[in-house]
Amino acid sequence: MQPVSEWYTVTFDDAEVRRNVRPPSREPWTDSFSWSEIIRVCYEPGEFLASDTFYFFLRGREASYAVPSEAEGAVELWGEVIRRGLFDAGISIKVSTGQLGLTCWPPVA
C-alpha cells in the first residue's frame, strides 16, 4: 500500500490552503479554501496505525475539508493553524498525545 504522503499533498500561502490528491486507483483532484473562511478546526486522533485527521469548517459550507496528518505538508499546515490561532496550542498537544478524542476549536457550544 502506498503511503499517504506519496499521494496526498497540502500546501498553503498567506491567502489559502490547497489540496492535491492523487489516490491510488482513483481519479486525482485538487481544491483550495481561504484562511479567512475558516470558522472552526477539529483534530481527530487516529486509531492504532491510522492517521490523525484535521477538519476545516468554513463559513457557508456544511461539509468540512479533511487533511490526514500523514499528508505531505500536513505538519507545516498544522504549525500555521496554531500560529494563526485557529486551534489552541495546549489542547493540540493533549489531542496528539491521545489524552483527548475529537476536539474542535473554538469549542462547540
Task: Give the structure's gist in a few sentences.
This protein has 109 residues and is an alpha+beta fold.
Question: How does the SSE layout of this entry go?
Answer:
Layout: H1 4-7, E1 8-12, E2 16-21, E3 29-34, E4 38-44, E5 53-58, E6 65-68, H2 74-83, H3 89-96, E7 103-105
Antiparallel strand pairs: 1-2, 2-3, 4-5, 4-7, 5-6
CATH architecture level-2 label: Roll
Specify the structural class: alpha+beta
CATH topology, by name, is PH-domain like
Order of helices and strands: HEEEEEEHHE
Q: Percent helix among the residues? A: 10-25%
Number of helices: 3
DSSP strand content: 25-35%
Relevant terms:
single chain; 109 residues; alpha+beta; PH-domain like; four-stranded antiparallel beta sheet; three-stranded antiparallel beta sheet; 34% strand
Question: What would you say this structure looks like, in words?
Answer:
The structure is a single chain. This protein has one domain: Roll (PH-domain like). The chain is built from three helices and seven strands, in the order H-E-E-E-E-E-E-H-H-E. It has helices at 4-7, 74-83, 89-96, and strands at 8-12, 16-21, 29-34, 38-44, 53-58, 65-68, 103-105. The protein has a four-stranded antiparallel beta sheet. It has a three-stranded antiparallel beta sheet with strand order 1-2-3. It starts with a helix and ends with a strand.
